């Protein structure tokens, strides 16, 4: 395999469930060593795409190759080289932490002593060594997630697939997971992840595609996407709900590249947030709160789809 | 912590085990690890069940039957008549128990199957791995049953040793079709129906407790169609030494056909359920 051939290659990839088209003809190429993200709201087709890459969901149409192999024909061989962190934990909660890795390692046909050595290293990596002989059931959500990550590494995968790796975790637990994933990335593991958190995508992804309604709306590095679809700064204003609409109308005369009126906020896309705020005040607009921030992937998504990621 | 990924990029991955059954064996090992938690309790009930039934019905009720004359039972004691029937029924009970909730729970509760399907295992390997485990559980329970029956003096013929594989086959005739169906369920309410309206009537009316010639004439053909009757008939023929080669062939073929049909159906239903 030459250095430039992609690890995962998709052209016109489609997944249909009856009349519903979950993935509607997407193209992407993914290269060794990169962290690649699918960013989009729930129902955008991210998980369906991940399941096709994971060879547990046959594509309805289009081209898909993984590690140069065909997912329908060579599913066994491909899966032997993948590490999968599914959206819902699939740990056996009645077994111990160590037994979960043992059982999973055997699925890959690994000998017991290899599993034992790797288990020690992996539990240290995810900071669960002291819980090795505890049952999984009482572990916190963050610990279970970290255990799932450790389990997915038992076969030393060439590609890791992470479907919503931090959904449902509290902020501290999320940061612990991000930290571990960042270390894996530093070690050169190829990461593929889906997320509906723009901060997660910005922290972890070298390159990402924005998905909406089964299609790819745009793709690039987080910085490229923000430069292309947002502005350096964003001014966020909140008003008393009573005069939200009226205030938003007054803002139309403030010079800005774009104005977004959301249900609870008004966003002004500008080069300089502070001067825009001064200009708004000069128009007699008095927000309850104001915030100047840099453009984010959230803004990119809003621009591309007209909706917020959380919706 | 230097290198979690020790395989250099671009190097060949380890070769896969070629045979499907060796992949199924990997899933079987999961079930064995899982069973280590509950095996003691399961052995107690495997012993207690035949002790209670052979004691209360075989000896207790049997003493009344024997006093009445046992010509219609083939001239043997009620205990010797009952024990092989109960053996086949116990195999059915084990099979139904192991192939309903454990299969459903593996999809819905602890998601064992979803975890396994992300590994090299295919749905068909996951299915066969569970069938292997159920086969092992059937062999264990039936062997214990035979030992208890022997201790009660209910074993009349050395041929009864052949009743072990026959009882396992009887169990598989239930297990594979039920597993193939259980994996498709999205709710577990239908399992109680199987127990109430499937297993209990079969248990009572398939010749376990009395010859089906005692049933009303119109019901007898129904009894002949049930898989349990064929299992009961085989086990009883072995214990009473009344085996007729033609009938044995029919019974074995019937049970094997059901088990095979269940295997083929499960190959398909597991794939449809796990590859969506």
List keywords for this structure.
heterodimer, A: 311 residues, alpha/beta, Rossmann fold, Alpha-Beta Plaits, 2 domains, six-stranded mixed sheet, four-stranded antiparallel sheet, globular, B: 276 residues, mainly alpha, 11 helices, 72% helix
Verbal overview:
The complex is a heterodimer of chains A (311) and B (276). Chain A has 311 residues and is α/β, with parallel strands linked by helices. Chain A folds into two domains: 8-224, 3-Layer(aba) Sandwich (Rossmann fold); 231-294, Alpha-Beta Plaits (2-Layer Sandwich). Chain A has helices at residues 46-53, 75-79, 97-107, 112-125, 141-152, 171-186, 198-204, 222-229, 244-250, 273-282, 297-305; strands at residues 8-17, 20-30, 35-39, 61-66, 82-85, 159-163, 190-195, 207-212, 215-220, 233-238, 258-261, 266-270, 289-294. In chain A, the strands form three sheets. A six-stranded mixed β-sheet of chain A has the order 5-6-7-3-8-9, with helices on both faces. A four-stranded antiparallel β-sheet of chain A has the order 11-12-10-13, with helices on one face. Chain A has a three-stranded antiparallel β-sheet with strand order 2-1-4, covered by helices on one side. In chain A, helix 6 (171-186) links the parallel strand 6 and strand 7 (190-195). Chain B is mainly α. The relative contact order of chain B is 0.14. Chains A and B meet through helix 2, helix 3 and helix 4 of A and helix 1 and helix 5 of B.
Largest interface pair: A-B, 47 and 36 residues
Radius of gyration of chain A: 22 Å
How many DSSP-defined strands of chain A?
13
Largest sheet of chain A: 6 strands, mixed
Order of helices and strands of chain A: EEEHEHEHHHEHEHEEHEHEEHEH
């Amino acid at each position: 395999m030459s250095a430039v051939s992609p690890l995962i290659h998709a052209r016109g990839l489609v997944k249909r469930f009856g009349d519903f088209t979950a993935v509607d003809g997407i193209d992407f190429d993914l290269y060794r060593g990169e962290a690649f993200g699918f960013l989009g709201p729930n129902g955008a087709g991210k998980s369906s795409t991940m399941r096709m890459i994971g060879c547990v969901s046959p594509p309805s149409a289009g081209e898909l190759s993984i590690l140069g192999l065909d997912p329908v024909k060579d599913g066994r061989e491909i899966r032997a080289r993948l590490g999968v962190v599914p959206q819902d934990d699939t740990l056996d909660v009645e077994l111990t932490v160590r037994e979960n890795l043992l059982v999973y390692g055997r699925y890959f046909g690994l000998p017991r002593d290899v599993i034992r050595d790797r288990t020690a290293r992996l539990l240290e990596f995810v900071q669960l060594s002291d819980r090795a002989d505890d049952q999984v059931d009482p572990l916190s959500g963050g610990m279970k997630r970290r255990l799932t990550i450790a389990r997915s590494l038992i076969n030393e995968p060439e590609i890791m697939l992470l479907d919503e790796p931090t959904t449902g975790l509290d902020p501290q637990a999320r940061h612990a997971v991000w930290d571990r994933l960042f270390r894996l990335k530093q070690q050169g593991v190829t990461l593929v992840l889906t997320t509906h958190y723009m901060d997660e995508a910005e922290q972890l992804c070298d390159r990402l595609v924005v998905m909406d309604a089964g299609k790819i709306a745009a793709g690039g590095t987080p910085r490229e996407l923000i430069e292309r679809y947002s502005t350096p700064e964003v001014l966020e204003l909140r008003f008393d709900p009573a005069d939200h609409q009226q205030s938003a109308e007054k803002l139309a005369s403030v010079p800005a590249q774009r104005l977004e009126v959301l249900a609870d906020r008004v966003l002004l896309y500008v080069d300089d947030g502070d001067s825009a705020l001064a200009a708004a005040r000069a128009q007699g607009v008095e927000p309850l709160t104001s915030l100047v921030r840099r453009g984010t992937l959230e803004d990119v998504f809003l621009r591309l789809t007209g909706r917020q990621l959380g919706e | 912590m230097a290198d979690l990924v020790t395989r250099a990029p671009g190097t060949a991955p380890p070769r896969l085990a070629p045979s499907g059954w060796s992949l199924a064996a990997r899933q079987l090992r999961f079930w064995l690890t899982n069973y280590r938690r509950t095996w003691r309790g399961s052995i107690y009930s495997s012993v207690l069940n035949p002790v209670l039934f052979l004691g209360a019905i075989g000896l207790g009720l049997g003493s009344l039957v024997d006093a009445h004359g046992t010509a219609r039972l083939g001239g043997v004691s009620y205990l010797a008549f009952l024990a092989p029937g109960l053996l086949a029924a116990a195999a059915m009970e084990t099979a139904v128990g192991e192939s309903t909730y454990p299969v459903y729970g593996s999809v819905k509760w602890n998601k064992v199957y979803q975890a396994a399907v992300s590994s090299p295992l295919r749905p068909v390997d996951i299915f066969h791995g569970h069938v292997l485990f159920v086969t092992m559980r059937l062999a264990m329970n039936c062997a214990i049953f035979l030992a208890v029956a022997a201790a009660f003096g209910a074993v009349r013929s050395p041929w009864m040793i052949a009743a072990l594989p026959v009882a396992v086959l009887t169990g598989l005739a239930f297990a594979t079709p039920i597993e193939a169906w259980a994996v498709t369920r999205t709710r577990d309410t239908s399992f109680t129906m199987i127990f109430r309206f499937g297993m209990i009537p079969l248990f009572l009316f398939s010749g376990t407790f009395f010859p089906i010639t005692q049933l009303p004439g119109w019901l007898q053909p129904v009894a002949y169609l049930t898989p349990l009757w064929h299992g009961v008939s085989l086990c009883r023929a072995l214990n009473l030494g009344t085996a007729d080669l033609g009938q044995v062939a029919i019974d074995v073929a019937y049970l094997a056909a059901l088990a095979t049909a269940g295997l083929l159906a499960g190959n398909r239903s597991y794939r449809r359920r796990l590859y969506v």
